Structures are given as C-alpha cells and as structure tokens.
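can u pls check wat happens w/ zinc ion
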Amino acid sequence: MHAESDTIWHSVAQGPAIRGALAGAEGALRGAVLRIFFRVCLISFLMAFWPLAGSAQNAASKPRVGPAQVVEQVRVYRIGNEDRIVRELAEFLAIPNVASDTENIQKNAARLVEMLEARGIETHLLPITGRGPVVFGKLITPEAKRTVIFYAHYDGQPVDAAAWTDGKPFEPALRDAAIEAGGKRIPFPENAVKQPAVYKDDWRIYARSSSDDKSPIVALLAALDALRAKRIPLNVNLKVIFEGEEEAGSTNLQRALELHKNLLGADLLITADGPVHPSGRPLVFFGNRGDIGLDITVYGPVRALHSGHYGNWAPNPAMELSRLLASMKDANGHVLIDEYYDDVVPLTALEKEWLAKMPENDAELEHELGIAKPEGGGEKLVELLQLPSLNIRGLSSAYVGDRAQNVVPDKAEASIDARLVKGEDPRHKFEQIVGFIRKQGYLVIDREPTIEERRAHPLIAKIIDEGGYRASRTPMDLPLSKALIQVVQDATGGRTVVAPGLGGSVPMYIFEDLGVPWIGVPIVNYDNHQHSSDENLRLGHLWNGIELYAAILADLDW
Ligand SMILES: [Zn+2]
C-alpha cells in the first residue's frame, strides 16, 4: 500500500510542472492539472492508508508510549515524507487568503475540507455571509475521555506584492536561509522512491500565511498522518476550528460559534497562532491581553491663526493636548489615571513562579533598540506585560518639517490604545480614561463641537470609542494545564518557555465564554515577518511542530 502510493507520488513529484507552477506563471495550466492530480493522489493515499490503522485509533487498545518516544517515531515518519508535507503546505499557500477576497477565501475552506476528510475527519462548515466559513472538524477516538479543540486561522493579512522580494506572495518560494541571512532562492527538490527529497531545517518557505497561520494546520494534519503510520493511538478526541477572518478582526467568530455551540463541547482548546519564544525556544502560553482604542481631538480657534498676530493670546490645542497626555503618566510610565490598576487580577504564586523562570533579554533589547532607560522603574519587560498599558499610538496637529506653517493650529489629535489584563472590563477602562480627561476640565463629546460650545468651554475633547475586548488567562494550576506543560516539556527535552501571559491581544475570551479553557502552543519561527512582506516559515520549526502536536495528541492525559 505504502509502496504503491509512493509510486503514484513519485510519478507526480517528478513532473517539473509542479515546480513550474510553484515558481512561475508559465507552467500554470499544467501545474493546475497536476495539482489536482497531486491532490487526488494525496487523498487516495490517505483514504487507502487510514482505515488500516483504524484500530490503532482506539485509545485503550495499546499502552501509550511517552512523548519522547512519540517524537522519535514521528521524526522517522517525517524524514520519509518531507516532500509530501511540504507540497501539501505549498499547495495550500498558493490559494490567496485575504479574508475580504470572498471567492478565494472560500477556495481555502474547500481545500481544508478536502485535507480534513482525507484524514477521515468529519467536517462541517459554519457559514459567515460574505466571508470564509469557520471550518469545523471532529475526529473521535474510541474510549478517549478528553476532547481537545485545535484552533488556527486560514486567512492572512492583506499583501502588497511590490514589497515582497519575490513579488508573488501566493507563489511559495523556497530559500536556503532567511533573506536577511543571504538566503538564495532554490528549486523545490526532486522526490523519488529510492531517494526521497530532503529539506534542510534552515530552509524557508516564503509566502503569505506560511507562518501565520497555515503551517500549524499542515503540522497538525501531518502529526495525525505520522501517528497513524506509526500506529500510535490518539489519547484524546480531536476537534478543529479553522477560522477564515482572524486577520480581519474575527468579527463573526463568536456569533458563528455560539450558533453551533452543540458541536463545540471540549475540555481544552489549543491555539496554534503566533510564533515561538524570541529566544528560539518552544513556547506555551496561558494568557494574553485585551485592548481598547480611542481617538482624542482637542480644539483651538475655529481656524488656524497667524502665530505672530495671535500667539500668546489664542489657546494652542497642540499644547493643551500635550499637557493632557503628559498628565496621564509619570516619568516611569506609571499611569496616573484614578483606579487604573484597581481591577487587575494579580498573578497567582504559580504564575509568578513561571514568570520568574522566563528567559529575559532586556539588556540586549535596550542595546538593539537604542533605549537608554526603559520605563517601569526597573521591572522586567515580561513583568510589565502583566499590567495594563496606556500608549499614544499616534499624534497630529498642523504640519512639521518643510510643510510647517507659523500658525496656532485649530485642533490637535491623538490616538490612544490601552492593553488590558485579566479582571479589566473594556468599557470600564474607557470610562476611566474619559473620567480623567473630564477631571482635567474638559467638556467631553463624541462629535464635532458647535460654535456655542466652543464659545462656552475653554477645553473641549471629542473622544471616539473604537471599542475593544477583554484579556483572557487560563489558570496554570488546572490539572489540564499541568498535564499540557508536562507533555510539552517531555516532548521538547524541557526546553519550553512557559508564559502565564503574553503582551499581545487575540480575542481568546470568545472561547473562555464558551466555557472552554485555552492554552497557546505556537510552533513557527519568531523571525517569520508575520503580517509583513516576505513572511516565511523555517522548515525546522515545522518539523518540530509536527512532533510536538503528535506528542500532545498521543500523550495528553489528565
Ligand atoms: Zn495569526
């Protein structure tokens, strides 16, 4: 069975047109035909192969092997199947996946259904009007007592093709190293039965979503293939949620999931989104921050005035806004707004313990970023990320540089964001900030002021609430949390960085609201250019990710 499938694969993989389709436009038609052929071959390979291993899926049928042995066996499988794994990823990356590109995002969902069904996973599409559906899948393991949902998103950030070195974000390109390290473009290697293609760990695939977030999906599916091939049973029921509009703000995710709540019963959700730790070590994280945004405009005279004729007399809105913003924080970055830190749920002793063990490179960062004295009064970066923040993300009033005019401006604007931690309500945080601005004497409105208001109030602030969402943190002392840390550490030789919470924001509260605790287990390289041009995946990280996900599926137990 295996040999026969390899023969089919061999004949496909030898065809130069696949490489042509991946590398350039010329072979596009032949490439498309062969892509379909490749897909049929992959699917028939998997369909033919999987029922054989069906009995091995029974959780109780065989004593479990430990994570370290799972990793070893999965590695053997991977070494023999690198070409198949890379090509499945490359084919997937070749489908443009910007959330608003309705036609193509649907194609991504259709491809995902094929990829899941090829593994015998029951699949449902949870539709979202005008957008890619949530792709839901379920794989039951007889006698498994726990169910784990694996979350990833299949949409990617919009692309500016001109900013990409290869100019084609949806034509995956292989390089022998990162572009910054002088990586050269190389062809996808030949594959043959007697001499399977070998992909080096440091090689990188360049394409939109190669890291964020398609490769974790392919890693999970390869992990399933490897476990099946090695007859290692899963220890959990697996469900998947693949979202198609994460990069567009996950606007419909909560509603789509609530409508299909009956499908989503689970004990744990693992999110694959994001990179590993900056140190290069694997990462598991238990929380992230929420965030809110607001825009503030303060007003001077109804029109910009000559600074010579009116200076010293006309109130200057840029000065007023500067004074207002500066009064929000002290020189150490501590926020001076009343009750700003009052709702923060403090870290538990266990969370503090893990936080203290996290690697820190503050000194290197200061050096690299040209920072002489960080904020925080001596606290470490990882500690400061456990607190709410207040940040000016943009400032504007009249003109600077060559365009500067000698005027008293008519208005000044600032855009502010605040990151929230566990315990903080987005609306309440917004009101704290607004309350502070009122306390400084401002009339706060949510529209342009009238002339009467301008005549009556020396200080007016228009504040636009851009909304936001709360933070989310899964307790680290839950049995499932401890069990996951254990499996991951066993699978990675104890190298994994365990973080109580990351600084960024992802709306993981949605899963918290569904009653499913979540933990982040990312796999991709930190230097992946996520969201930017030249997004890339280091293949060694993909290989490690396959092993890690396989170990979790085979050995997570609590
Ligand atoms: Zn992502």
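DSSP finds 17 helices and 21 strands in the chain.
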